[in-house]
Amino acid sequence: MHDFSQCNCREGSSNILLLLSRLTVIRPFEKGDPFSLLIETLNALNAGDILACISSYHKLTSALIHSKARRVSGDVWRDYLLYLLIETPHAFAKAAAAGIEDEPLYSAMRTDLCVLGTLSSLKDEDIRRFALEKQHDTKLSPHRNDPIGLASTSAWSGAPVRHTASNTQSTASFITTCEADYISWQYDNALMHDEYVCDETLEEIYLRFLQTADWRPFAEDLWSFFSSYGCGDFIKHKLFTYDCKKGLVPLPSLAEREALFPVSFYEMQHRKALEHTISFMQGSRVENMLICGGAATGKTELLLSLCDELPELRLVLCNAASCTALSELFEAISCQPLRFMVLLDNIRFDSDEADTLLSTLECTKLLPKNVLLCATSRSRGEERNFPLCITMPYPTLNDFVDIISEILSQYDVRIQSELIRSRCIDYQAEAKEKLSLSAAKRIADEYIKKQGGFYADI
Questions:
Q1: Are residues 164 and 310 in the same domain?
Q2: By residue range, what is the domain housing residue 24?
């Protein structure tokens, strides 16, 4: 059955509860999530408590609206089902991402797809119609109890069956009042307003699910998707930080940054790092890479630019405090089909954290095949841990002027070189610091704002 519009109240609510009870992979239901609230709504309906049914329905609608589901189908209920299947790291998604074939799990997922496909045809007007039918039946026989509905409620809640009489007059008044405030699950403009890194493939998957209510054949498509793109946040984001307590945390703000690197002055460094990373992406075993240079020379941005240029690369940014938990990080990402650059940012090789880091590296010399270990530092470090070192020098005054001109050209801002040079000399005298990539961006920002443009500082 793929259409609840042909069901009466008793058939519809019983069938929905039966379908939910058959879910295996997409389970358990948490208190306050849409599934548990749908069960609560139907239980109240079966018990003849229309007031509680209406209240639970609005809680359900609120949960759907505030869920993390993308607006892709024109219906918040169907959006939520797609979110559960595609975006949550359930057991099937994790197994596919890790390449672990498990026939019972695969079979259970096919059953879940059949169930969720059927549930995707549920409309808000179906529940509204069920409630009105129940109200009508209660009016005709106010002291009659529904044995099937009461038994169903008892089964889900664990409570004993209780036969209660309904207050017909107050219920009817409440229903009449609420009809004008009815909240629909449908909406216009079903577009992907946000951006995920896998959107080109995701769009095709969404279309397949939305074209039919028979979702069972899509188990193989989902397996292929997860085995290629990973699961959970790896579907959405490319850049992460790693915290010992919080684990992997996405960095959407960095993912949306405008790439301003490389500038010509660092072309050699960029090319060397890019070639090394491409070799890693192609499956070669490569050496750990260190980007070494003074403050604000663009060490971290050089590596971030590689993530911009290589769509399949994921980058995990770690600070010194996270170095003690590298083994846990490696374990978390080794079961994903993606390739990761793990960046130990701003490491001081003369610190206690560095001692812990070096000890950890000695214990984890066999890195996962999908991990490229990189670091940035102001000092050279130890060659045995980072055999490949790329040095980022400070620019001369002439190079500094050229860097600013190149940044301005990306925003179609044209300033005479003589004026830029004069401003650079003034800046150097005022700031009394070395000329750097960050300083070049600050000066370029001044000109861009004067021209009425916009420049996102990184």
A1: no
A2: 4-232
CATH of the domain at 354: 3.40.50.300
- Other beta carbons within 10 angstroms of residue 315's beta carbon come to 24
Distance in angstroms (rounded) separating the CA atoms of residues 240 and 314:
8
Q: How far is CA 150 from CA 16, 42, 44, in A?
A: 15, 11, 9
Residues 441-445: contacts with CB under 8 Å, at least 24 apart: 441/260, 441/407, 443/404, 444/404, 444/407, 444/408, 444/413
Highest mean pLDDT among 104-118, 147-161, 360-374: 104-118
Sign of CA dihedral 213, 215, 218, 223: positive
Q: Extract the tokens encoding 320.
A: 């010194």
Number of Cβ atoms within 10 Å of the Cβ of 242: 24
**What pLDDT does 148 receive?**
53
Q: What pLDDT does 151 receive?
A: 53
In terms of residues, how long is the chain?
458
Does residue 259 share a domain with residue 207?
no
The reply to whether 37 and 159 lie within a common domain is yes
Q: What are phi and psi of 2, to 5 degrees?
A: -125, 15
Query: CA 131 to CA 51: how far, in whole Å?
Result: 10
| 133 occurs within a structural domain | yes
Is the CA virtual torsion 29, 34, 38, 40 positive or negative?
positive
- Which residues, listed in sequence order, are joined to residue 236 by a DSSP beta bridge? none
- Which of 344, 373, 392 represents a domain boundary (last residue)? 392
What pLDDT, on a 0 to 100 scale, did the predictor assign at position 253? 56
pLDDT, tens digit, for every residue of 130-160? 988 888 877 665 444 555 555 555 545 555 5
- Same domain as 324, residue 217: no
CA distance 318 to 250: 12
For residues 106-128, average pLDDT: 96
Residue among 436, 103, 119 at smallest CA distance from 266: 436
Residue 283 CA to residue 267 CA, distance in Å, equals 25
Domain count within the chain: 3
376 versus 193: the higher-pLDDT residue is 376
